[in-house]
């Protein structure tokens, strides 16, 4: 019963779509009907409000971290720490992808996944983030960086954490990231995926 409570609570936390919440606070277009239609930080950048994109990124990361932290903390008091932690990890991620409060239309989950990984293990989160950064800096393609990080997360988790349940949970989250990026994968294969422009060179000549 306790595990079910943690899972449901995590899903509800995940259902807080910060892209939609922030867009309403800033009086911006609904991200589900603007740009790519994805309620996430990248699409919020298309509104021209970097502060709104940053708040969305932080909010989505924070909810992933909070749900897992609370499940681990309280789960340990009832002897269900491992099951509660990884059940909450998957549940909060599903909440972000399919939010109850916003018509089950959520984002792709990259920021929320990072928050989850940081709560599970700071080293796992930082190592996965490093892989994202390396690929992004080299290619300027956000989706390719996300897919690479999603591929490496279960591998890194195997070495840094171990255990069947953690690895299974990480594999589920990674598989869901691939599923949500299926249109990006098609564009990548076709060589049509967009790139972020490199920062302008401001050095003196």
From TrEMBL:
Give the first-level EC class, as a single word. Answer: transferase
**What Pfam family is a match for this entry?**
G3P_acyltransf
> Which reactions appear under catalytic activity for this entry?
an acyl phosphate + sn-glycerol 3-phosphate = a 1-acyl-sn-glycero-3-phosphate + phosphate
Provide a GO biological process annotation. Answer: phospholipid biosynthetic process
HAMAP family given in the database record? PlsY
Task: State how it assembles.
Answer: Probably interacts with PlsX.
The record's similarity note reads: Belongs to the PlsY family.
What is the protein named? Answer: Glycerol-3-phosphate acyltransferase
């Amino acid at each position: 019963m306790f595990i079910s409570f943690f899972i449901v609570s995590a899903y509800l936390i995940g259902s807080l779509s910060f892209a939609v919440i922030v867009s309403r606070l800033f009086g911006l277009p609904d991200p589900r009907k603007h740009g790519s239609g994805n309620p996430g930080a990248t699409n919020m950048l298309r509104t021209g409000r970097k502060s709104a994109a940053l708040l969305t990124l932080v909010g989505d990361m924070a909810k992933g971290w909070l749900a897992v932290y609370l499940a681990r903390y309280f789960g340990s008091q009832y002897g269900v720490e491992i099951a509660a932690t990884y059940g909450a990890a998957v549940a909060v991620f599903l909440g972000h992808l399919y939010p109850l409060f916003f018509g089950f239309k959520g984002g792709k989950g990259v920021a929320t996944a990072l928050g989850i990984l940081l709560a599970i293990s700071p080293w796992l989160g930082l190592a996965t983030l490093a892989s994202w950064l390396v690929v992004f800096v080299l290619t300027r393609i956000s989706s390719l960086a996300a897919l690479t990080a999603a591929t490496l997360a279960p591998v890194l988790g195997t070495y840094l954490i171990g255990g069947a349940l953690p690895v299974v949970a990480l594999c589920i989250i990674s598989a869901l990231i691939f599923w949500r990026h299926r249109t990006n994968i098609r564009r990548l294969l076709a060589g049509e995926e967009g790139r972020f422009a490199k920062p302008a060179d401001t050095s003196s000549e």
